[in-house]
Amino acid sequence: MKVCVLGDGLASLSLARMLVNKSISVDLLLDDKSIDYSNSRTFGITKKNYEFFNKKILNIEKISWKLNNIEIYTENLSNEKVLEFKKSNSEIFSIIRNYKLYKNLYKNLKNNKFFKKKIVQNNDISFVDKYDLIINCNKNHLLTKKFFSKKIEKKYNCTAHIAIIKHKKIINNSAVQIFTKIGPIAFLPISNSETSIVYSITTKNVVNLENLINQYNTKYSVLKILDKKLFEIETSNLKNYYYKNILCFGDLIHKVHPFAGQGFNMTIRDIFDLSKIIDDKIELGLDINYSIFVEFEKKTKHRNFIFAQGIDLIHQFFDKERKYNGKFLSQSLKIIGKNSYFNKLFSKIADEGLSL
Where are the beta strands (DSSP E) in the chain? Predict the structure, then answer.
């Protein structure tokens, strides 16, 4: 059996690694424009996903920074703490730079006998009949435009500003998110002397990111602000995950607002489910064919949609509270967050996603 993974990103490389670990031959098809990850792009990974990634995909101990505390504040309550998730003796979240994972995955794959990388143009579909299964992570490819155009989309009319701040060395194991009057800002530690910034800004006016960081920074002695980038925020949910022997994956099937840090976590959970489906087929001695895509969509589609809508709903609540200078949601979450049962429930959902 031969599988083609289409695209050149974290989702496609992680998928390829999961498959070759099962001794499945994989061709990675990409165009000649490789991804240029900036130093400032980071992502968070939950504890359960971290353990799965280490065991079934690639050990990421050396490139991750572990956090044992997440604090959430809102400017509408005079920067009072609304929620806190904390484990004093264990990490609850880890932060990884995108480019470091990208490089490590490629380095690990390139010498694997089950893996080959090939160049193919985005308008070339001549390879389709050469593979038993195709997993598509390339939004710009003709296959995407031809078979997977139906989706639910939403544009937020806001921009994510990202950067890295270098600061004086401190014990840096607590992430902070503040819902400000122009959008949520997250301080995500990546070492004792560096912290990643993600600020989703709703205003269309030109902003001074350095001034905004300094305005909401309460614990860092900033030395430099580096690698400033920005990108438009939008969400989407694909209506059909597969067509015949082609499966879409990663951001193509679900793209969510970055404030919750769940985008790549959803993809890792999808890899877990696809891996489990393949393992079950192998254990039963059954052929691995397009039926695994049918099972995958049936298991994940509604769960992913509900989870994505939940993230959007939370964002809408905070956004309305911001616009009308209200306090009801923040005060309610503050009360709920003090209840140990609900705090554990929120932590479990954030870590493991939804079980449907």
Answer: 2-6, 25-30, 42-46, 64-67, 69-74, 80-86, 93-97, 115-119, 133-136, 151-167, 174-180, 183-189, 194-201, 222-238, 242-243, 246-248, 254-255
